[in-house]
Each structure stands twice: as structure tokens, then as C-alpha cells.
Design a protein that fits this description.
The chain is built from three helices and ten strands. By secondary structure, the protein is of the alpha/beta class. The structure holds 1-O-pyrophosphono-5-O-phosphono-alpha-D-ribofuranose.
Length: 175
């Protein structure tokens, strides 16, 4: 993919500011509590690593992995668990950290799984919300950016073939 074909959608500076503000809000929401933060892999790794550093709380980290897109740009509609947690979540305050909600299928699947483990509370934060893509109703507590119905990648999200997760900005292909 040539860089001339890419259009900058959200800059690293805008992301940094949005994530810092979210971290401050979460710090006050969870004040005095011990929290289990679960980045949803793979896409959520970069957002989560910046977010936890902007939260002044006692945090444990667990990981969940889910995949439904494979190397395609459209959801297969079939979500697979690719990695599971190691700590019991029963009775814990859990914060699920996701890069993007599109159809909602991934979050619906993962939230159901976490709830079946009876946490004391579950909140979900997403960096990007592509509302136009929604196929199922899903609860999202905090959204950093609403985005249009375009295929985006960078800052943890991959382009077809699994590349470009390491970009600092979020980009799309020029139409
Ligand atoms: C992407 C993204 C979200 C999900 C959102 O994951 O990271 O988890 O799709 O789409 P949805 O709302 O339509 O379910 P993907 O399956 O590409 O796996 P990855 O995180 O490993 O890239």
C-alpha cells in the first residue's frame, strides 16, 4: 500500500489527548477500587497500553483475544476466542478495552463471556465507534472517537494481511 493512497483520519496527537482524558475520567469513576483491565487482542493492545498509563489506579491486566475478520475487511459474522484470561473474574471490577466496535458482534460475544464469570461490574471502553456498521445492540460505556463507515487501520488496527498495526495515526484508504 503506497503512502500516497492513505488519508489521515485521526492523528497521534488527537489520540493521545482523547486517551489521556478518558484515563482521567476512569480514574475518578473507579477511585479507591482495584481494577482488572482486559485489553481485547489483537487490535486493543496499543490503546490499552496507553490508557492504563493514564489511569492512576491499582490495576491488574488480563488479556482476551477474539477474531472474526481474518484477513478480510468485512466481519465473517463468526467470532472465535483466540486467548482466554488466567485470573478469576468473579467479584472483580472489570474494564474491557477494545479498539473498535463495528457490527458489535465481537463485543456482544466477549461481554457475554465475561458476564458469565460474574464480575462485580463490567464497563466497556472503545477507541473508535463505527455506528453505521452496527448489526447487534451492544453496551459501550465510553467512546473516544466516532468514525464514518470507512475501513480504518493503524494504532493497533490492522490492514488486510495483518499489517500497519504499528502506525501511530489512524488512517483510511483514499476513496
Ligand atoms: C476487529 C477489532 C474488533 C472487531 C470489531 O477484530 O479489533 O475486535 O473487529 O468488529 P465487530 O464490531 O464488527 O465485531 P478482528 O477480528 O479483526 O481481530 P484483531 O483484533 O485480532 O485484528
Amino acid at each position: 500500500m503506497r503512502s500516497d493512497d492513505l488519508e489521515l483520519l485521526i492523528t497521534s496527537g488527537e489520540i493521545e489527548k482523547g486517551v489521556r482524558e478518558l484515563g482521567a475520567r476512569l480514574t475518578s469513576i473507579y477511585s479507591g477500587k482495584r481494577l482488572v483491565v482486559i485489553p481485547l487482542l489483537k487490535g486493543g493492545f496499543m490503546f490499552a497500553s496507553d490508557l492504563v498509563r493514564s489511569m492512576a489506579l491499582d490495576i491488574q491486566i488480563e488479556f482476551l483475544g477474539a477474531a472474526s475478520y481474518g484477513e478480510q475487511t468485512r466481519s465473517s459474522g463468526e467470532v472465535r476466542l483466540t486467548l482466554d484470561t488466567t485470573l478469576p473474574l468473579k467479584g472483580r471490577d472489570v474494564l474491557l478495552v477494545e479498539d473498535i466496535v463495528d457490527t458489535g458482534l465481537t463485543l456482544a460475544y466477549i461481554q457475554k463471556l465475561i458476564r458469565s464469570r460474574e464480575p462485580a461490574s463490567l464497563r466497556t471502553v472503545v477507541l473508535l465507534d463505527k455506528r453505521a456498521g452496527r448489526q447487534v445492540d451492544v453496551e459501550v460505556d465510553e467512546v473516544v472517537f466516532d468514525i464514518p463507515d470507512r475501513f480504518v487501520f493503524g494504532y493497533g488496527l490492522d490492514s488486510p494481511g495483518g499489517f500497519h498495526r504499528n502506525l501511530s495515526d489512524i488512517v483510511t484508504v483514499k476513496e
